[in-house]
Amino acid sequence: MNKVKSYRLNQGLTQTQLAYKVNVARQTISLIENDKYNPSLNLCKQIAKVLHTDLNSLFGGN
Amino acid sequence: MNKVKSYRLNQGLTQTQLAYKVNVARQTISLIENDKYNPSLNLCKQIAKVLHTDLNSLFGGN
DNA sequence: CTTTTTTGTCAATTATATATGGCAAAAAAT
DNA sequence: ATTTTTTGCCATATATAATTGACAAAAAAG
Questions:
Q1: Ranges for the HTH cro/C1-type domain (chains A, B) (predicted)?
Q2: Which of A43, B12, B57, B58 has a CA-to-CA distance to A55 between 20 and 30 Å?
């Protein structure tokens, strides 16, 4: 559903590296990428910033 | 910071009406509009849909 | 093939988003 | 000026996001 994994791989980052950059646990990134739950807005914004994109591009789809 | 209040008023909705449409308590809308906390992504998406806009427009700023 | 890295998932715990009820102040309506 | 509606805020309670540690499987590297 979301495009976090796609953008993360484009930046050459591992889940662990992305998690470190946005100050969450690696598991949190894994769960988000698999649409296993519902992250907070602030976390979404941080991820968008680190992946050089925006909320609509990462989470805008259905 | 965010533009929920602005878009809500444009649609002629009260906090209570918006809360009802997105299935949360009125207080939740009040807190979000005043940037008093950090809503979930799903709630942000529902609000965007009801207000006929998108994540970037509502929450994209800083 | 063997070793190392990366990822998915589980269980238990902690932090915090959201709910509920209520009250006062501001705004709008009469 | 008075009444009604709308909003901000304060408690307490509940649901769930996020943490931590650990293990196995898949993928990548050697």
A1: 4-58
A2: B12
- Supply B2's token pair: 């965010």
Q: Report whether A28 contacts A39 (CB < 8 A).
A: yes
CB within 8 Å: B40 and A39: yes
Which residues of chain B neighbour A38 with C-beta distances below 8 Å? 40-42
Q: Give the separation between CA B34 and CA B57, rounded to whole angstroms.
A: 17
Task: Report yes or no on B16 lying in a domain.
Answer: yes
Is A8 contained in some domain?
A: yes
In total, how many domains does chain A have?
A: 1
Residues of chain B with pLDDT under 70: 62
Positions of strand C less than 7 angstroms from a protein CB? 5-11, 16-22
